[in-house]
Design a protein that fits this description.
mainly alpha, globular, YitT, UPF0750_membrane, cell membrane, 210 residues
Length: 210
């Protein structure tokens, strides 16, 4: 006797997040990223996107990372507003501002006496990937290349992790002119860990919230 065909499971519908859920995710995501950047700073490592540019300028000028990161991201808000919408832009602005504040605060509340750069690269990469994933699933980002990568995923189906990995590797390789090659190698590892995590975990249609 022929068994009836098992119906295919329907895709999980988009979830509508409340303001409390958004606030919790934005705070947790930026906190994870701030901790990762603190690890990178103490280990002398870099990261890609606008954060990497801010790190490079910080190493060269001595101006704090938080101030540089906030200013560098300002031109990207127009792109976000026109291509990603008002909600995404406002949340991204709040996330960038919060991260700038947290990175200024962290040296006063936490310090690591010894930090192996390999450990910092792996742990920092995972913290960055997790934090960015929290933000992306709640329609936010940390500006810069992340805005571009999320736009390409949303509009063209190109995985954000692939785009992020390509952009970040270019930025980190530019650091060869500023920091020792060994530190650049660890920084590239951190980029690969973060981007690989996003590549696997942040797929179009897997989880979308509004």
């Amino acid at each position: 006797m022929t068994q009836p065909a098992t119906p295919m499971p329907h895709a999980t519908p988009s979830l509508r997040h409340g303001h409390y859920e958004d606030a919790q995710a934005l705070f947790a995501g930026t906190l994870f990223v701030a901790m990762a950047l603190m690890l990178f700073s103490q280990a002398g490592l870099l990261i890609g996107s606008t954060a990497g540019i801010a790190f490079l300028l910080h190493y060269v000028t001595g101006i704090s990372f938080g101030k540089l990161f906030f200013v560098i991201n300002l031109p990207f808000y127009w792109f976000a507003w026109t291509r990603m919408g008002r909600e995404f832009t406002v949340k991204t602005f709040l996330s960038v501002a919060l991260l700038s504040v947290l990175t200024e605060l962290f040296p006063h509340v936490m310090h690591v006496d010894y930090l192996n750069p390999l450990f910092a690269a792996v742990l920092g990469g995972l913290l960055l990937g997790t934090g960015c994933l929290f933000l992306a699933r709640h329609r936010s980002s940390l500006g810069g290349a992340t805005i571009v990568s999320l736009y390409l995923q949303q509009s063209h189906g190109i995985r954000a992790g692939k785009v992020q990995m390509a952009i970040d590797c270019v930025v980190v390789l530019l650091a060869l002119f500023v920091v020792p090659p060994e530190r650049v190698a660890y920084s590239v590892l951190a980029v690969l860990v973060m981007s690989g995590f996003l590549w696997i975990s942040h797929r179009p249609g897997r989880y979308v919230g509004h």
